[in-house]
Structure formats: structure tokens, C-alpha cells
Specification:
The protein has 2 domains: about 230 residues, Glycerol uptake facilitator protein (Up-down Bundle); about 55 residues, no CATH class. It is built from 12 helices and 3 strands, in the order ααααααααααβββαα. Strand 1 and strand 2 form a beta hairpin. InterPro entries: Aquaporin-like, Aquaporin_10, MIP, MIP/Aquaporin, MIP_CS. It is a multi-pass membrane protein.
């Protein structure tokens, strides 16, 4: 009798009566269960070099994790598990907007905690597999255990399309399963149907990015890898290809030099290197570099200072005569009085004639 009364008092003391708090705790527990099983399957596959698991087993673990998570919190919070699904519910006016940031924060926190639990569970395996070096690239990388990373061949637009289509298919499928006007799933088997939906998407769209359909599932563990020692490289979208594409986006600048057969390509024409400038594409964004970029994409407060009218006004104020049209083709060497910020323009001291 004494133990029974003690349990009743403990239950009354620990019972949470606030509905929002109960929903948040249920969502936190459900996301934790989801990520614990999902990341555990990935860790077993990566650390064993494929001998104790492969992509099929990892995808199956993720799908079954969805089923267990929905059964865990479906009756309390609805088991959103995904900020994208919570956002869709808000758009359909089935979920209040003021709860959206709270659920997103709780879902991200649950994924973060689950990543820490998996790291502690597989700590020895991760250290043994990576030889004590936590990296995001290379044959012994371990960052893919926790977050999704794109394939080497994937472009930015294709990766964006992959994520949009995968997430849209997930939302449409879940809404179709829960719609009572459709041929309904037997009551109590909705989590099984959702798990089969997730598994079908993963095995059909997982090669590009690993199906990052859940922002909380990706950002929470990714943030944990940053804290745990993988470094800022975990936030790079594409290692190497992103940098090359960034440089390629600057190449339309008229003053960005590119090497070609011993000469430099400036604005589409081949010219000899300028004696007063270091021919480096990395320096095109500073000093006397690309004003075209600043006029189009630079900060609004800086655009007036890079326009040709402002430069002409400054030249007249300083008493510098405007060069004639014939001076544009004259091979005059650069003048030492030409300011550094003015040498990027096609003035007699700024660019040599075309060969």
C-alpha cells in the first residue's frame, strides 16, 4: 500500500498539465527516437566500411524510425517530426502559425541531442575508422554519418530541384494517407504507410543528396558535428565545386583576368598582363577590381560610388582632363599619378591595347 501511494504521488507531481508543454516534450522525444535509429543505421554502415550495412539497410532503418516516432507522439503532438510538414499544416490552416517556431526549435533540438547520443554510442568505432581525424571529405570521412552531403557531380540547381521534389512528394503522400476522403488506410496503420512512403522516396531519390527532406534532421546533427570538432567545413554545400562555381559567377566581370596561353583574357579579349596589376582572379573583388559586380550585386549604399558618372564627377573635381577617344587606343604606359581605384577602368593608364 505504501509503494502504491508513493507512485500515485510521484505521478501527480511529475504530470505535465500544460498542453503546449506536453506537445513539445512529445515532439522532442519522437524526433530523438527518429534520429537515434536513423543516425545509428548510418553510423553502422560507415564505420564498418559496408561490411555490416549498406545504403539499403540505412534507408530501411530511417523508414522504420519514422514509424516508431509516429507511434511515439502521434496521439499527443501529431508527430510532425519535420519543419516542412509543420509549415504545410500552417498553410492548410490545420496548425497555428504561432506554434511553428516553437515546433521547429524543438525538432532541431531533438535531432541535436540524438546526434550526440549516436556519437557517444559509436565513439570508439568513429575514432577507429577515422584514425582520430574528424573530416568531411576523403576516404575516411565520418561527417556523412550525421548529415547529408551532395554527390561530387551534383550542381547547385540540380541539388535544389532534388530537395524540392523529394520534400513535395513526402508532403503530398502524407496528406493523401491522412485524407479521409481517399481510400483510407486501416486505423492504426497510418505510421506503417508513412514509413513505406519514406522508404520508397529514399530508395528512388537518395543518390544525389541522401534525401534531405527534413530540415531539422539535417541542421541539428550538422550543428552537432560543428561543435564536436568537424569544423566549419560541415556547412559547405559542395566541397570544391562550390568554390569553382563562385569564381565562375564572377567571370562576367569585364576586368577579371583569366590565364590563356601565356596571356590574360579581360572582358573576352586576350591582352598582355598589365605591369601595374597582379593578374590574379582572387583580387578581382577588391581595390580597382570589378565595378560591374558592385553595380549589379553590391550593397545599395556602395553602388553610387562605383558608377561611371561618379567617377567622371570626381575626375573633373580633381582637375584631371577627360581623355579623348583617340587616347583609348594609345599605348601610353600607366601614370604613377593614377589612383589605384581608377586603374581598373579603360583609361590610358588602365589597360593596354588589344594585340
Amino acid at each position: 500500500m505504501g509503494s502504491a501511494s508513493f507512485l500515485k504521488r510521484a505521478q501527480a507531481l511529475l504530470r505535465v498539465r500544460n498542453q503546449l508543454t506536453r506537445e513539445c516534450l512529445a515532439e522532442l522525444l519522437a524526433v530523438f527516437v527518429l534520429m537515434l535509429i536513423t543516425l545509428g543505421g548510418s553510423a553502422q554502415m560507415v564505420t564498418s566500411s559496408g561490411t555490416k550495412g549498406n545504403f539499403l539497410t540505412a534507408y530501411l532503418a530511417g523508414a522504420l524510425a519514422v514509424m516508431v516516432a509516429v507511434y511515439t507522439a502521434g496521439g499527443v503532438s501529431g508527430a510532425h517530426l519535420n519543419p516542412a510538414f509543420s509549415f504545410a499544416m500552417c498553410l492548410l490552416e490545420q496548425f497555428p502559425w504561432w506554434k511553428l517556431p516553437i515546433f521547429v526549435a524543438v525538432q532541431t533540438a531533438g535531432a541535436f541531442i540524438a546526434a550526440g547520443a549516436v556519437y557517444a554510442l559509436y565513439y570508439d568505432a568513429i575514432q577507429h575508422y577515422s584514425n582520430g581525424t574528424l573530416t568531411t571529405t576523403g576516404p575516411r570521412e565520418t561527417a556523412s554519418i550525421f548529415a547529408t552531403y551532395p554527390a561530387d557531380y551534383l550542381s547547385l540547381s540540380n541539388g535544389f530541384l532534388d530537395q524540392v521534389m523529394g520534400t513535395a512528394l513526402l508532403i503530398v503522400g502524407v496528406l493523401a494517407i491522412l485524407d479521409t476522403r481517399n481510400k483510407g488506410v486501416p486505423k492504426g496503420l497510418e505510421p506503417v504507410a508513412v514509413a513505406l512512403l519514406v522508404f520508397s522516396i529514399e530508395v528512388s531519390m537518395g543518390s544525389n543528396c541522401g534525401c534531405p527532406m527534413n530540415p531539422a534532421r539535417d541542421f541539428g546533427p550538422r550543428l552537432f558535428t560543428y561543435v564536436a570538432g568537424w569544423g566549419t567545413e560541415v556547412f559547405r554545400w559542395v566541397e570544391g565545386r562550390g568554390a569553382r562555381r563562385g569564381v565562375r559567377g564572377v567571370t562576367p566581370c569585364p576586368t577579371v583576368p583569366r590565364p590563356q596561353q601565356g596571356r590574360w583574357v579581360v572582358g573576352g579579349a586576350r591582352r598582355d598582363p598589365l605591369p601595374h596589376r597582379v593578374p590574379s582572379p582572387a583580387g578581382a573583388m577588391g581595390g580597382g577590381g570589378c565595378r560591374w559586380w558592385h553595380r549589379c550585386w553590391g550593397p545599395r549604399w556602395a553602388r553610387p560610388f562605383t558608377s561611371s558618372s561618379w567617377l567622371s564627377t570626381t575626375r573633373r573635381r580633381r582637375g584631371t582632363p577627360r581623355p579623348s577617344r583617340a587616347a583609348w587606343s594609345s599605348p601610353t604606359p600607366p601614370s604613377p599619378q593614377t589612383p589605384s581605384w581608377h586603374r581598373g577602368r579603360r583609361t590610358p593608364g588602365g589597360m593596354l591595347p588589344q594585340k
